[in-house]
Amino acid sequence: MTKFEGKVVIITGAAGGIGKATAKKLAEQGAKLALVDLNLDAVQQAVSELGLSDANSIAIQANVANEEDVKAYVKATVDKFGKIDGFFNNAGIEGITANVEDYPTETFDLVLNVNVKGAFLGLKYVVPVMKKQGYGSIVNTSSGAGLIGAPGFVGYNSSKHAVIGMTKVVALEVAPFGVRVNAVAPGVINTRMMRQIEKNTVPADAEGARKAFGAAVPMGRYGEAEEVANVAVFLLSEDASYVSQSIYTVDGGQISQ
Ligand code: NAD
């Protein structure tokens, strides 16, 4: 019997690097998955790439910042599978790279809307289901940018600090009901998001930016999506049964808390 046999997990941002890598590991361990993403084609593609069956998976297009979409993905999951054991609250966007005086207000609004309101709405609608069940594990995706400052990232850093705040609040609210809430705080991870951040940061030399970001990591390299997925899967599993309100950095030693 594998660890996630019979378990139901929702993943947002499931078509992206970290979301898909986590879906793969959970599927290999027998989980039933609700894969949620803004990009329907990409999330359907993920379902077929991972070889998931109709009986064991559902692909849902949703904007995590839209309350009706969030209600709908939670309802679709419960209607199909009858419960939610795990929730990987992971969708996010990077915004742009600019110092505060040049940072467009509309970009700030957009980043906060997706990364903060999106994560909040996921918690708002998944928590009641888990409280009623009397069990469940939630993993929010913050970032190293949620723990330290990084010049040029006022929107993204503000949003990921907020994700840590809501992780701590909600963990305390739901602990008496058998529900755990933790966060992963990845460093520089090899996904579409870092390719975009490299271009945004040094448009004339994205490759140079990549080398510099990698060199700043004590382990001297980017992390892979699978390395974040391993930690998310642990926190979602019963192996982490006494772990809550914890922030797990996955960053090659870059940040010391
Ligand atoms: P990614 O761009 O590969 O994946 C993000 C996914 O989220 C995409 O599939 C995208 O379509 C989806 N998404 C974006 N906006 C959405 C919305 N409004 N509603 C629903 N889905 C939406 O990037 P990733 O690296 O896999 O990022 C996953 C999470 O990890 C994000 O929260 C990101 O901030 C965080 N993170 C990434 C890194 C990194 O270096 N890659 C570091 C720290 C934290």
TrEMBL record:
It comes from the Bacteria. SUPFAM superfamilies: NAD(P)-binding Rossmann-fold domains. Keywords: Oxidoreductase. The keyword Nucleotide-binding does not apply. The keyword Zinc does not apply. InterPro entries: NAD(P)-bd_dom_sf (IPR036291), Sc_DH/Rdtase_CS (IPR020904), SDR_fam (IPR002347). Belongs to the short-chain dehydrogenases/reductases (SDR) family. PANTHER family: DEHYDROGENASES, SHORT CHAIN, ESTRADIOL 17-BETA-DEHYDROGENASE 8-RELATED. This is SDR family NAD(P)-dependent oxidoreductase.
